Amino acid sequence: MKRILSMLSVVLLLLFAAAMLSACGEERQPAEEATAVPAADGDETVVASGLPDEAMTIASDRGFSPDDIRAALMTYVPSGKLDEYYLFSSGGHSGNVLVVGVPSMRILKQIAVFTPESWQGYGFGSVESKTILDAGNVDGVEIRMGDTHHPALSETEGDYDGDFLFINDKASARVAVIDLRDFETKQIVKDPNIISNHGSTFVTPNTEYVLQGSQYATPLGWDYAPISEYKEKYRGLMTAWKFDRESGRIIPEESFSIELPPYWQDLCDAGKLVSDGWAFCNSLNSEMATGGVEQGNPPFEAGASQNDTDYMHIFNIDKAAEVAEAAGKTEMINGMRVIRMDTAVEEGIFFLAPEPKSPHGVDVTPDGKYMVVAGKLDPHVTIFGFEKMMQAIEDKNWTEDAYGIPVLDFDATVVTQVELGLGPLHTQYDGDGNAYTSLFLDSALVKWSLGGDDPAGYKVLEKVPVQYNLGHIAAAEGDTVSPDGNYLVALNKWAVDRFLPVGPLLPQNEQLVDISGAGPMRVIYDMPMGVGEPHYAQMIKADKLDPWLVYPEVGWDTLAQAPSEFATLPGEEKIERDGKNVTVFMTAVRSHLTPEHVEIEKGDHVTWHITNIETAHDATHGFQLGGYNISLSIEPGETTTFEFDAVNDGTFAFYCTEFCSALHLEMMGYLFVKPE
Ligand code: RUQ
Ligand code: CUA
What we know:
By secondary structure, the protein is mostly beta strands. 13% of the residues lie in helices and 40% in strands. (dicuprio-$l^{3}-sulfanyl)-sulfanyl-copper is lined by residues 149-150, 198, 267, 360, 425-426, 471-472, 535-536.
């Protein structure tokens, strides 16, 4: 990074000097003298003859300021060169995840998660994707939408390891697992006892658990109960989904939940290092407001904001995991082990602490010692000390809430409060002891120093405006035990005037901010995201990932990540009939699908396996069967299966959808469905 910056500053100086010269109407320097810049590998000098003149002309024709030129140089990644980081961004209520390269901010891929996506053949006939999506159905209702909020990369010792990505669906309280070997969704789990989550997903430092806090309280299992029974029946949950790395799956049977009061739990974070084994969540409705403005009650936004404080929830997850294993300490509710509230209190696994009202983010510092709670309606962040919390617990320095849950003394747990600006929401960190917090109302990013136990050490350092209404921020590895600094992405809620108008629904704006410390923080790129609303993102060093280029074997089952029992090799293609059941074994290779003729009868049930027998990088074949809503993407080596009922007779054309060779248009075949 430093080398790139010093190179940048040389180029900038030159460009800037040349700009000044030409602005003063003086003679420009000869190009050859002005353009000696060190090559990227540092051991050679490249003379880019003629470049500055041309670059200068372009910059002045396009009206670039020196800052614009700097930003362009920092973010441009030449064709064929690769980005430094992957950004995994929530795609919000498009129900998917976007993968973006940093610093170029080029969109690399959209990963279909909760929502069908026909390019990837996700949710259009393939049995693999149907299996995944159906596991997220709710009581027999097919759910094909999602509201993704917080992606979480798997961690080893508190650092991203690049193996898996998790993301929540707030709308239906679900969590998905994405395997980063092939960047595909492998599993969706549905919490059987809550209907919305938010403080999710957050992983424990070795990804033993994927944590999920609920949002809007409902009776457990979202059974019917009138709102008049809110205090008695409505509840929240903290669910610890057990993750098994070996199989790459969440194991619901080994997962558990902790019953919570009906304060709307908001964001959560897992402890790390000293606070490893603990987790923290905010909440925003300690008033237990129940709305009903149409009946003359205060509306939710007023009812839920009356108290000066809400409750931070503090969990001893390690202890809870032990309790979940102990006989008779949990109750099985809808197939999930639930630690009831009184047990959680008795066992010392659940505490509260007052926090300024309606907070939003709670973000544990890289050393695991402090929990930074952003105020939302308060210009401060409140810094809780983990050791202080532990001391308060040991001293039983608490009062009790309406449910008998210990509420730790505020002064005994808080180190200090730092005034940052209006509407602080979320905090990230760099490796130099600094924190960065989004200011929603100020539309700004603020950088401040962490002071440890010394309140005087917390100082606001600088602010940079962003466009506009900043929500989450994602600094490079900025929520791990060893943040990188360098870059930060601002995930703004509004874009307004940043892009060409595209009608009333605007793209979302992810802005790249230079936080390298080489000068003030600066916005250096605007990336319009064609889907919304991106809530959180995580940025990981690119070399931590090692994705497959092709599947390990020809005939690969991408759900099991193992050889498929339906793998079809050349010469093994066939069509089998067993009564009304027809099974097709097909191969795909440049440039034919074998067999080319498939003849069935109306009323048949068809199971169709296709193996892409290619081993060449990027030799993907697509498969679409119009009229039957079938769309697949078959990557090199993959065996996929789709099923359908032949409800209509006729003559159908199926074809490959990827322009895979000069004879791609010929890569087709006919499905003949004979009338009964
Ligand atoms: S949210 S803008 Cu994480 Cu769902 Cu804060
Ligand atoms: Cu295969 Cu086109």
